[in-house]
Amino acid sequence: MTKDLTKGNPMRLLLAFGIPVLLGNLFQQLYNVVDTAIVGKTLGGSALAAVGATGSINFLVVGFCMGVCSGFAIPVAQQFGAGNFRELRRFVTGGVWLCTILGLALTACTVLFCSQILTGMDTPADIYQRSYYYILTIFAGLPAYFLYNFTAGVLRALGDSRTPVLWLSVAAVVNMVLDVVFILVFHLDVFGAALATVLAQLLAGTGCLVRMLRGYPILRTERTDWRWNTRRIGELCLMGLPMGLQYSITAIGSVMIQTAVNGLGTASVTAVTAASKVSMFVCCPFDAMGCTMATYGGQNVGSAQWERLHQGLRACVLLGAGYSVISLGLLYFLADPLNMLFLDAASVSLLPLARQYLMTNVLFYFPLALVNIVRFLIQGMGFSPLATFAGVLEMAARAGLSLLVPVYGFTAACFASPAAWVMADLFLLPAYLYCYHRLTRGSGQKRPKKFRPRLSTGA
Length: 459
Description:
Blueprint: H1 10-43, H2 45-52, H3 55-82, H4 85-112, H5 114-120, H6 128-140, H7 142-157, H8 162-185, H9 189-215, H10 230-262, H11 266-282, H12 284-302, H13 307-339, H14 351-362, H15 365-380, H16 384-408, H17 410-414, H18 416-440
Helix pairs in contact: 1-2, 1-8, 1-9, 1-11, 1-12, 2-6, 2-11, 3-4, 3-7, 3-10, 3-12, 4-7, 4-10, 5-6, 6-9, 7-9, 8-9, 10-16, 11-13, 11-14, 12-13, 12-15, 13-14, 13-15, 15-16, 15-18, 16-18
């Protein structure tokens, strides 16, 4: 089930590894899509707005969890590429310690300050209570998100991109069933939708954990592997925390935009929620490309296959460009029907706003593809802190546009994400060349295949 990405045609490897990752992302989004569709269709536009009003803070917190877990998997991928399985196991156990500590701390903080967060985001009064119940449940279930994302990250670092998607597919079906039961049978309203999502995530994480423990001899640890090692923990933090902060920093800009949109009223919040759900689902291939390039970069740096970094980048950029064109064509004709998946009959008047938001974003999907491909490749190469700066630029762009929303209204909100993607690309493209030259400087493009990569700070 492991896959070595250091040998063979890069395009074929990226497709073979990336397609299961894509399916996993689709099922991950299916959680949110099903929740949102059932909420919007059965509970009405007010409930849909209540869920949508928490979207940016949800992404900030859950995105931090996803980011740190992806970062903790990068040293695992590098050690796998280098063939150093003993060190690999110790990085895995170090990641377990960190996920446990961070999961408990983050859950406690977000649950305690949930009300203050929603108040600070200017959540409309008519949807405040529903928003509170929904996001509080998600926050309480954060350990389940840590469990799935870390175990899935380790499996992907070993080249196994199939097991995570297998369990996500099972969890997605369970999520849909629980949505119907909790909302339509037990009448738990938006709390039922959030509870279904958390339980499904817990199921997926448990399945991946069992696969790790039973299916991979190289992951069978000894007592000494569980000893706290400050150096190793530091290297994991150096990889994981910047990636987590990158998600959160990016999400801070989204929170600013969400706060500005909240100020425009429930109608704008509902339209943006519907269009955002469509866009998130359509953008799953870009997320899969990023995840694939992180593993590809980590393994090839571990085995000192420098030229393959360029080859993989070119191949993935071609994939991103092709998909950007296809998605533009499809959404031009299907934007309204897709938005109506999340709007009830009483909200048909919001279709023009939802279409405007969606089509403005799709015009800039290629810059979004570059953001995911290049940033995650840089992180896989071991330069997570440097890649994080792109998130700072995204936050700055969104923050700037949020200040224009009260002046220019809904149109300014539509251009917030495109501006963030372009701003990040202006930094990431030269940053990749810098990272590549840092790795190859003085090496003459050659190093022993079994060297142990030194995790760079990018400084």
